[in-house]
Amino acid sequence: MDFFIERDGTYYDFKPSLTAKIELKPAIESNTGLQAKEAAIRAAFEAWWAAHSQRITDLAGAQSFRGSA
C-alpha cells in the first residue's frame, strides 16, 4: 500500500505526496514491490505456457471437437 493511506475502515486515499494524476503512472511503474509481483506473474505464465502450449497448439488442428460437417 505504498500509494494509499487509510481514510477509515472502508476507504483509502492517495498519499498526500501524490498531488497530480500525472504522478501516478511513474510512481506505479517504478515501485519495486509491484515490479517484483509483475515479474512473478510473468514467470508463472511463462512456466505454464511452456508446460501447456503444445496441447493448446494441438487443439487448433484437432477435428474431434468440431461438429461433423
Q: H/E series, N to C?
A: EEHH
Overall 3D geometry? elongated
What value does the Rg take, in angstroms? Answer: 22 Å
Strand order of the largest sheet: 1-2
Largest sheet geometry: 2 strands, antiparallel
Contiguous helical run count:
2
Mean pLDDT metric: 87
> How much beta, percentage-wise?
5-15%
Total separate domains: 2
Give the N-to-C terminal Cα separation: 56 Å
Give the low-confidence spans.
none
Broad structural category = mainly alpha
Helical residue percent? 40-55%
Counting DSSP E segments of at least 2 residues, the number of strands comes to: 2
Structure at a glance:
The protein has 69 residues and is mainly alpha-helical. Helix content is 52%, strand content 9%.
Topology:
Blueprint: E1 4-6, E2 12-14, H1 24-29, H2 32-61
Antiparallel strand pairs: 1-2
Please explain how this structure is put together.
It is a single chain. The protein is mainly α. The protein has two domains: 1-30, no CATH class; 37-62. Helices cover 52% and strands 9% of the residues. The N and C termini lie far apart (56 Å).
What labels would you give this structure?
mainly alpha, two-stranded antiparallel ribbon, elongated, single chain, 69 residues, 2 domains
